[in-house]
Amino acid sequence: QVQLVESGGGLVQAGGSLRLSCAASGRTFSFYAMGWFRQAPGKERELAAGISRSGGRTYYVDSVKGRFTISRDSAKNTVYLQMNSLKPEDTAVYYCAADLNFSLNTVAEVAREYDYWGQGTQVTVSS
């Protein structure tokens, strides 16, 4: 079993930056592809960014391309989401999720593929 703990959310002005961190427990972090989902009020949860087990493949939803960067540090069992040039429409609860995946270079894009979830961290971008 994997436990995921997010940190780094908060309130920021439009144009600002935040870095989210997700620390994973256990010694099998390398078995999991990781994703950052987000859910705004009244909207469906969407995958904002994902990274494969190897780190060699990433996914970004179109609305964050060029502004967000996902990365992972296997030595620290941590995945990061660097968010730059934030916009009010980025306001959401951000969830870290882990997908037990036999492929080294696959990123699942749907929530049902993910096996473990963090509790979420609020990101609010003011205009």
Task: Explain briefly what this protein structure is.
The chain has no helices and eleven strands. It is mainly β and 127 residues long.
Topology:
Blueprint: E1 4-7, E2 10-13, E3 18-24, E4 32-39, E5 46-51, E6 58-60, E7 68-73, E8 78-83, E9 92-100, E10 116-117, E11 121-126
Helix content: under 10%
Number of strands: 11
Please give the largest β-sheet.
7 strands, mixed
Radius of gyration using CA atoms only: 13 Å
Strand content: over 45%
Q: What is the number of helices?
A: 0
What string, H for helix and E for strand, traces the elements in order? EEEEEEEEEEE
Structural class: mainly beta
Question: How confident overall, as mean pLDDT?
Answer: 96
N/C terminus separation: 40 Å
* Poorly predicted segments: none
Can you give a write-up of this model?
With 127 residues, the protein is mainly beta. The chain is 0% helix and 48% strand. The strands form two sheets. Strands 2, 4, 5, 6, 9, 10 and 11 form a seven-stranded mixed sheet that branches. Strands 1-3-8-7 form a four-stranded antiparallel sheet, with no helix packed on it. The protein starts with a strand and ends with a strand. The model has no long low-confidence stretch (mean pLDDT 96).
